[in-house]
Design goal:
This protein is an alpha+beta fold and 537 residues long. It is 27% helix and 24% strand. The two termini are 27 Å apart. The structure holds FE2/S2 (inorganic) cluster. FE2/S2 (inorganic) cluster binds next to loops.
């Protein structure tokens, strides 16, 4: 198997049984806050002819719409993770991909001699409502592309092995603690913990998987805008005693040095266009430049990034110019959009249980204070009261979000790191779940997911039936969305229909519903009907 690194989480896997392009990314992401590190503008994506395309999830450093549209051949068959929402498939179909293999999480699929398995994680906290890992077996070599996922179904992953190669993330890709208004010493201590925790977690995965070779991957991104440039970690694992201990974005060389200091010496560095030839006999890595030049990227990172920033000045300027503005009443627009979502948020609302203040700023300071009131489930003007959570965001960024009707503000605004935050008390997952679920479908799925954790067997009476409360499709609350007519229950969220006498779904063959007539014994919970991965064109 030949692995060509394409930058960040990207790789091109070539085997005798077929090739897979994974997570190709080049376009600046998140309001041009993130760029691939090292620079991957020399990677010739257009020269690849992949049999398969694998996009692990929809975060924009993994799903690059512009690159996929312009440079990736649409003849590739997409290997689709089993996500609860159809967004990834829809996006790729919109880009022109026509052939899909819908996989089942943790179940291997044989593709004419190439065995693959995608394992998904689908809690609201996993990526943009879903993240995944890819296992590949070409008959001679097995590879695990974990990228930035944190899989919980580790038994399925190990069952596919043993592995020769393991690609995984080790560095932060999050705004905590860098955007928080904290004392510098506190922020440094938290940054140091974040930095070490990320590498220690990766080490645990490495030891659990036990692959012959490990390849640091999926980050860190670098920050080329002058407003964010100071967030880069300028330390290097190639320089003895180099400092950087409180930066949460350590690079590949720092992680390899960390592994070595813990007795793990099978890590291999890849930069964009590096090639790793893997065979049962071993692994040979070839870089696209002399070793000294590779080392200088990391040992002279500040000057490397300054040069990179100069080359990308036009891209930064173009992104700024392309941000759409919103001339209307911003409070009115947010209220019209979010009030109905807050009304659906029966778990998320109480989960936040407080006020979230959005301070929108411009050149003259704070222009507007808007409260997302999770207690009374409404968006309104701030009346001066205490708010447990506060975000300070440039108004033009919020305008762009509204103008684009962006339904996932985590996968757009928050990952940009272009804001400041403060809170009293601990991290609250429900807040960010709300901000990544700004459509009824997404909100119902996430709220339903939390509800199921609390009440897995919750039933509701509809007509003469007791029915499982959450829709088997995407967990809409059937007490609100279910309509019964002639023994057929229709969920108003996406109009899936269920025959309550048999529990059979009349819309899709893979979902059943638990239902019984009032007064009769509950039917046992149905086993999910699972089909092996299949090719759809
Ligand atoms: S949630 Fe989609 S049909 Fe019910």
């Amino acid at each position: 198997m030949r692995i060509t690194a394409t930058g960040h989480a990207g790789s091109y896997l070539e085997t005798a049984a077929g090739s897979i392009l994974c997570d190709p990314w080049r376009s600046p992401a998140y309001f041009a806050s993130w760029f691939p590190f090292p620079d991957n503008s020399g990677v010739e994506f257009e020269s690849f002819a992949p049999d398969f395309l694998y996009v692990s999830h929809l975060h924009r450093d993994h799903f690059d719409r512009g690159l996929l549209r312009r440079l990736i051949k649409k003849s590739a068959t997409v290997l689709l993770p089993e996500f609860p929402m159809e967004d990834l498939r829809t996006e790729l179909a919109d880009l022109g991909f026509r052939s899909f293999v819908q996989t089942r999480s943790g179940e291997p699929v044989d593709l004419d001699g190439l065995r693959v398995m995608i394992t998904t994680s689908v809690s609201p906290a996993d990526g943009p409502l879903g993240d995944s890992t890819l296992s590949v077996d070409d008959g001679a070599v097995r590879l695990l592309n974990q990228n930035d996922a944190r899989p919980r179904d580790i038994d399925s992953i190990l069952g596919f092995g043993p592995y020769d190669a393991h690609l995984l993330q080790f560095s932060g890709a999050i705004w905590w603690p860098v955007v928080y208004e904290l004392a510098e010493a506190t922020k440094a201590a938290l940054g140091a913990r974040k930095r070490l925790n990320g590498m220690a977690r990766a080490q645990r995965f490495i030891e659990t998987v036990g692959a012959r070779f490990v390849f640091p991957n999926s980050g860190p991104a670098c920050f080329l805008d002058r407003d964010l440039f100071g967030l880069n970690d300028f330390s290097s694992g190639l320089v003895e005693d180099d400092k950087g201990a409180d930066n949460p974005f350590p690079d590949q060389t720092v992680f390899l040095a960390y592994l070595a200091s813990n007795g793990i010496h099978n890590g291999r560095l890849l930069i964009p266009s590096s090639v790793a030839e893997l065979s049962p006999a071993g692994c040979v890595v070839t870089h696209p430049m002399p070793d000294g030049a590779v080392e200088r990227i990391f040992t002279h990172k500040r000057s490397y990034l300054e040069g990179y920033a100069a080359r990308q000045a036009g891209a930064l300027e173009a992104e700024r110019a392309a941000r759409p503005s919103y001339d209307g009443d911003l409070l009115g627009a947010l209220s019209e959009w979010w009030d109905p979502l807050l009304a659906l948020a029966d778990k998320i609302g109480p989960g936040v249980g407080d006020l979230v203040l959005l301070e929108l700023t411009g050149d003259a300071g704070v222009l507007e204070r808007i409260v997302v009131d999770f207690v009374h489930r409404q968006v309104r003007l701030h009346a001066g009261e205490e708010c447990r959570y506060r975000f300070v965001i440039a108004r033009d960024l919020v305008e762009a979000q509204v103008a684009r009707h962006e339904v996932d503000w985590v996968n757009s605004l928050f990952l940009s790191l272009r804001f400041r935050a403060a809170r009293r008390g601990a991290y609250n997952e429900f807040i960010y779940t709300f901000f990544k679920c700004l459509s009824p479908e997404r909100l119902e799925f996430a709220d339903g997911w939390y509800a199921e954790q609390d009440e897995p067997d919750d039933l509701v009476r509809i007509g003469d039936y007791m029915v499982q409360r959450r829709c088997p499709h995407l967990k809409a609350d059937l007490a609100k969305f279910g309509e019964l007519q002639d023994g057929v229950l229709e969920c108003g969220m996406h109009h899936w229909r269920f025959d309550l006498a048999t529990g059979r779904c009349l819309t899709s063959d893979a979902h059943k519903i638990v239902a019984y007539t009032v007064g009769s014994e509950p039917a046992p919970a149905p086993e999910p009907e699972r089909e092996p991965g299949r090719l759809e064109t």
